[in-house]
Design a protein that fits this description.
about 15% strand; WH-like_DNA-bd_sf; single chain; about 140 residues; globular; 6 helices; 2 domains; repressor; Dna Ligase, domain 1; Arc Repressor Mutant, subunit A; alpha+beta; 3-stranded mixed β-sheet
Length: about 140
Amino acid sequence: MSDASSLILQAEQQCQQRGVRFTPIRRRVLEMIASADGGLKAYDLLDELAVEHASARPPTVYRALDFLIEQGLVHRIESLNAYVACPCPEHAHCFQLLICRLCGRVEELHLDDVNTQLASRARSLGFRVERQTIELLGTCEECAS
């Protein structure tokens, strides 16, 4: 079973357990993102979705993306305005993204101590964090060689 297929099955189970609807459009958007090598932009998703669903419009894609992000199935790459599948959606977590500027590959890290230190320091300064995004842009090992 491919990684994309296993992510879809995991997403179905997670949505069923949470009592939320994993509609065909949400499923298809997740399939496209999970099958991509790097992050996909919303309009790339729309172009591909419109081939299959003539009625697909930007709000269709953005609603699906909002749902997938809310469920922890997809992450938004802020610096690229693109979306990538979460490889471990079964648990809520903070994450960091390594983004290769040459091939677009995205790796997800889980350095909880980094997030703990940032949250602690923010609290000590009286700052209330609403959202945290840590992205490291560079060159992956494959592209560097």
